[in-house]
Amino acid sequence: MALDKTVLEIPESGYTLGLVGESGSGKTTLGLSILRLIESPGRIVSGQIEFQERDVLKMSNNEIREYRWRDVAMVYQSAMNSLNPLSRVVDPITEVLRVHSGISKQEAWSKASSLLSEVGIDPVRARDYPHEFSGGMRQRVVIALALALSPKLLIADEPTSALDVVVQKQILALLRREVSQKKLSLLFITHDISILTDVVEHVAVMYAGEVVEIGPVDEILFEPLHPYTEMLLGSLLTVDSDEKSLDAARGLREPVTEIRPDNNYCKYVGTCKYAFDRCRKERPILLETTGGRKVSCHKYN
Amino acid sequence: MIRISDLSVTFRKSWNILRNREVNYEIKAVDRVSFDIFESEIVSLVGESGSGKTTVARCLLGLVPVTGGSIKFKDVEVTNLKGGSLHNYWTSVQMIYQDPFESLDPGQTVHSIISAPIRNLTGERNPEVVQSRVVELLQEMDMEPEEVMWKYPHQLSGGQRQRVNIARALAANPSLLIADEPITMLDAAQRLNILALLKKLQRNRKLSILLITHDLASAKVMSQRTLVMYLGKLVENGRTKNIMTKPHHPYVELILDSTPRLARSNDRKKEFKLTWIEQSEKVRQGCVFQPRCKYATEICKTVEPELVERSNGDFAACHNPLNV
Q1: Coil, strand, or helix at residue B120?
Q2: C-beta of residue B208 within 8 angstroms of C-beta of residue B152
Q3: Is the ipTM of this complex over 0.90?
């Protein structure tokens, strides 16, 4: 079971939400579900996904084909390695434009070229093949591809994980610019909580298939409420850390990944240093606290 | 303990294409790199992919033919070792890799994986002794031997797999452990655990560790000395604290600037100035970093800078060093 009664909301255009959690937390599964890309043997068992008041789970095949890429687009993990090595980099972009907008070849080329320059790739290189580009450049091609039909929501799943810090900084700046100029909404999925201030305004923290905390990025990072968020932040290493930061390793445990349906206890109870009796008997739900923060923890309830 | 002098590794490829025209292809993966590793110290080797850091590691293990220079382990030249003497050298130097899953044989139990080097490198044949060594090693890795010993790699978490890799590498009690991006594929909590474990092992075993990473934060908490490589060259070598606060080389300044820090969003300027400069392919003369360097002057285009001491114990290869 990858997702367990998860709740998430992106209220308006231009809203940027970071989704952070360790592997096994369900964050990638959540991203894929929004596009209804969960492949068998996985299934969406229950719940609802609504996009602009349309029920995504009930869409017909034609409707979902319109919805994908036009309304919601995704840059997924290792996307830069998924470019067809036998196609020139411009080809997937022109293909998407022609199939979904029915424009002519010339128009598609011209639009594709301008998309490439928008992400900093000289259109002169449009006819080159993926292997002639560096990892960072390929990732930008994939971003151009995702933005081709001007979607309203972009889901980016670990878009910079395989890249060096210098290139990462540029890619995050590119995403910020696109969001700002196009009023694009962004769901940024990552396990690296430290890059979130660079790219999103709100953060949702996931643990064992559930969203356990939501709030503005500065508050989540500097005043975390949920004990798991506290732990995540405590295990962060930056250039400002020193040897003593390693002491935090004592008491860090691997996250729970085996999820049983209908559990009637808090999944974090095994590791939580604040756990009390109620935590073992009752499952917490995501509730709003004073101050507009949302947290799923009995400490605040 | 280990002295690397002018180490160079050039990968060449040439082939004949139509009408006997020969095409030559040369990449200087490592270009005259020199540094020392002392007993019981942790040294970080930092660089982007393509910097040559992994190639240096593989040279230290005798896995890559060296084109020039030398590597001396306790005053003995090791770049030309073969056969029995290379095998023997592997009881002194070992390596763990980035992908904890790919490094383990999926068809062997943890016990089997760790016993192999005990038998092959130390020559121990008695199965009871081997078993007790495996148990000792697993305990040293802060794992419960009975819980893990008979499991297969796919039944372990990423952090556990990496511990098995470390146990295996330490089976023959080497003096130097090379860790090539050991935490890159692990999650936050697992990373901290593995780094803390490596620190503990360094203290208890008087082990030297060469930590290869592209992440400055790990270098900062682990090592007292940091080396920075760029496109095959060693551009800075100094005390970690100094490099992280007042680097001499512009490339190090660039990485520091790009490394995410925990800062409130309104504390940072949200500029959209995007400059897409990438590592260049080949620089014919002068400094390898010059095309990307905002401090470059005329001399940088023609004369290659030498690694020179710029402040107490800190060396940088730059014509216009910072913070001097």
Answers
A1: helix
A2: no
A3: no
Q: Which of residues 192-251 of A touch B (CB under 8 A)?
A: 192-195, 197-198, 201, 217-218, 221-222, 231-232, 235-243, 245-250
At A153, which amino acid appears?
Answer: L
* β-pair partners for B231: none
CA triple B260-B166-B185, angle to 5 deg: 30
This prediction has a pTM of: 0.84
- Please give the residue of chain B at the shortest CA–CA distance from A239: B217
Q: Which of residues 103-142 of A touch B (CB under 8 A)?
A: 120-121, 134-137, 140
The domains found in chain A, sorted by start residue, are: 16-86+129-300 (3.40.50.300)
Whether B175 contacts B124, CB under 8 Å: no
Residue-level pLDDT at A4: 77
Identity of residue B251: Y
Q: Is B226 within the bounds of a domain?
A: yes
| Domain hosting residue B242, numbered range | 2-260
Please determine, for residue A301, whether its predicted confidence score (pLDDT) is greater than 80. Answer: no
Q: CATH number, domain at B167?
A: 3.40.50.300
Burial environment of residue B88 by CB neighbours within 10 A (0 to 12, 13 to 18, 19 or more): exposed
- Find residues 73-102 of chain A whose CB sits inside 8 Å of chain B: none
Which H or E element spans position B280? none
Interface size, chain A vs chain B, as Cβ–Cβ contacts under 8 Å: 134
Omega of the bond prior to B65 within 30 degrees of 0, cis? no
| Exposure b/e, B178-205, CB count within 10 A at least 16 = b | bbbbbbbbbbbbbbbbbbbbbbbbbeee
Report helix, strand or coil for B79. Answer: coil
Are the beta carbons of A173 and A200 closer than 8 angstroms? no
Inside any domain, residue B107 = yes
At residue A231, the 3 state secondary structure works out as helix
Residue type for position A60: S
Which of residues B239 and A79 earns the better pLDDT score? B239
* Range A92-101 average pLDDT: 89
Alpha-helical (H) ranges within A132-281 are 135-147, 165-182, 217-222, 227-234, 277-281
Contact B192 A177 (CB under 8 A): no
In the predicted structure, residue B46 carries a pLDDT above the cut 90: yes
Pick from B53, B63, B62, B61: nearest CA to B33: B53
**Rounded distance, CA B84 to CA B206, Å?**
26
Overall domain count for chain B: 1
Residue contact B189–A192, C-beta within 8 A: no
- Nearest CA to B305 out of B323, B277, B285, B280 is that of B285
Tokens of A201: 């305004």
Can you tell me the distance from the alpha carbon of A19 to that of A214, in angstroms, rounded to the nearest whole number?
Answer: 9
Q: Quick check: B170 and B205 in contact, CB under 8 A?
A: yes
Using DSSP's 3-state secondary structure scheme, residue B245 falls into helix
pLDDT tens track for B121-144? 888 899 999 999 999 999 999 999
In a domain, B271, yes or no: no
- In tens, the pLDDT along B275-285 reads 666 555 567 78
- 8 A C-beta contact, residue B36 and residue B4: yes
Residue B290 to residues A23, B26, B172, B277, B298, Cα–Cα distance (Å):
39, 20, 44, 12, 10
- Selecting from B220, B254, B266 the residue whose C-beta is nearest the C-beta of A166 gives B254
Q: Is residue B15 part of a domain?
A: yes
Q: Enter the tokens of residue B261.
A: 């820090």
CB contact under 8 A, A170 and B276: yes
> pLDDT band at B312, cuts 50/70/90?
confident
